[in-house]
Amino acid sequence: MKKRHPLLEIKNVSKSFCKGSKQSIPVLEHINFEVYDNELVSLLGRSGSGKSTLIRMISGLIEPDFGSIVCNDLAVNGPCRDTSMVFQSFALFPWLTVFNNVAFGLQAAGLNREEIERRTMRMIDLIGLTEYVNAYPKELSGGMRQRVGFARALAVEPKLILLDEPFSALDVFTGQKLRQDLMELWEQHKIATRSMIMVTHSVEEAVMLSDRVCLLTSDPGTITDIFTIDIPRAERTRDNTQDWV
Ligand code: ADP
Ligand code: MG
Prior knowledge:
Blueprint: E1 8-18, E2 24-35, E3 40-44, H1 51-59, E4 66-71, E5 74-75, E6 83-86, H2 98-108, H3 113-126, H4 142-155, E7 160-164, H5 172-187, E8 195-199, H6 203-209, E9 212-217, E10 225-230
Parallel strand pairs: 3-8, 3-9, 6-7, 7-8
Antiparallel strand pairs: 1-2, 1-4, 4-5, 9-10
Helix pairs in contact: 2-3, 2-4, 3-4
The chain binds adenosine-5'-diphosphate and magnesium ion.
GO molecular function: ATP binding; ATP hydrolysis activity
Protein name: NitT/TauT family transport system ATP-binding protein
Family: Belongs to the ABC transporter superfamily. Drug exporter-2 (TC 3.A.1.117) family.
């Protein structure tokens, strides 16, 4: 049988950071990791294990010291058009309205005005913020801000969306509601993006949502490894969101 071709392929990636003095501390060493089309992969690991570093390298925001990252058959070398990120801290542009935050990537891609308007309004409708289209981030609750964060990332229809603890700055109920709404959009195929990497601290969330859970094990100065666990379909409850607490 022909082996599936990965959407994202990380080969032998290493990254160190300089701490204070000249000492260089390895954060990730010899990482190999693949993501396929239509896959939702969770990335677990304790604080400081390098989860954010890994997904920032995938998005092209920072460069690996060694190794290669290929997304959609192109080497990632600087900000990558095939991925978008959703940040824990939302990272919205405070000087832009909801509309202009969501439209940002489409404007940067040079789409015409009608197309920008159509795609932006569709995303804002899907995330339930139509009434807030002209509001500024400071006028919104945390949950609403993160909805804008999702809309901005998804509007450009990236091949792969990178979620860095997207619900952890929200209270439990707001986070659950947003997670549930996002998964409904995903399951109903209302969003074009079909592959996600989600960093989370919640084993429960990872098992509920993912096709695959990857555990990043790393302490400064030790070899990093990724253990992969496939989640059997019966254990995955994302298709069954009404059962969630
Ligand atoms: P996680 O997201 O798993 O909590 P991070 O990827 O944020 O971990 O960080 C991994 C390690 O790398 C930490 O020890 C952190 O202090 C260090 N680190 C991350 N970014 C930088 C940076 N820009 N400069 C120096 N050290 C960094
Ligand atoms: Mg992090």
